[in-house]
Automatic annotation (TrEMBL):
Protein name per UniProt: LysM domain-containing protein
Domain of life: Bacteria
Lineage: Bacteria, Pseudomonadati, Pseudomonadota, Gammaproteobacteria, Chromatiales
SUPFAM superfamilies: LysM domain (SSF54106)
Coiled-coil regions, chain positions: none
Record domain LysM: where: 32-80
Amino acid sequence: MRPSKLLLPFLALLLCLPLIVGADALRQGHPERYVVQRGDTLWDISNRFLRSPWLWPEIWYHNPEIENPHLIYPGDVISLIYVDGEPRLTVQREDRSGPTVRLSPRVREESISAAIPTIPLDAIRPFLTETRLLDGRTLANAPYIVAGADERVMGSGTDTVYGRGLDPDADTRRYAIVRRGDELRDPDTRRSLGYIATHVGDAHLEKQGDPATLSITRSNREVLPGDRLLEANETAFNSNFHPDVPATDVEGQIIAVMDGVNQIGQYSVVAINRGTEHGVEVGNVLAIYKAGQTVRDTFGGRRSQRVQLPDERAGELIVFRTFDELSFGLVMHANRAMHTLDAVRNP
């Protein structure tokens, strides 16, 4: 059965589409090559070459002769090449084995931790593993600090504190001290998504009992009676994810700013009411839209007609941590002020 005459032009367009997308992805005035510097991020480098940094996976060319070609290190050279007529970015790695430094695609073992991160880690570090999302019952039933050894402010590395509710049969010796923070609610359903458990410090169990004796090993702020004790989080964070677009359509809202302010700008950490249950993954880039205001039109034929202004694109965020029903994201670009309840969508 032959394709119809109407179908043939459509198939031809599909065949040309990757080339069109690849060519359009390049930023005007892009460099032909760039030497990666210490302190760079993958987002920074993507932004040098591409109009939209989240298109990186579509244009990245894996050099088969390099170990871990998806990782980029200071000193690597990112070059623009053409494969079958399509623009591709590839990496060349320094060879320092001889007296002359030359570029070659040789295999070189590198520590993954030495690779440049996708986004600035300093901006998100407190929210990677220390900040937790817990339901109210878990927080209420968690062990807690009942008092300090004296009446001084608790918080130094040698302070002794007493806790209750610890499992005497548990092998856990290291605990995180957390404090219940704001409750996050889904603005669509008004249902609670959990409480932010703010990391206060760390403690080591010295002696079981009721109360148990613990020593504070590290503190970010004053430790207070009533602060909760949770098993220390040993989960490692992978900072080498790639920016990309969600595989499904995402429609959500910013429900909180994690540094406690209402106005949002570049490098603000925000929570959105969409998580893994909605198809959101670490590395997903979402566009932020400032909610359009409702105004009164007093100039038309109908007096005082209410008009809903359209949402305006205000920036982009990248998701760096996901939960079932919400995610944390870092605002990477802001061209106007943003606030909670602004919309997030596929870019």
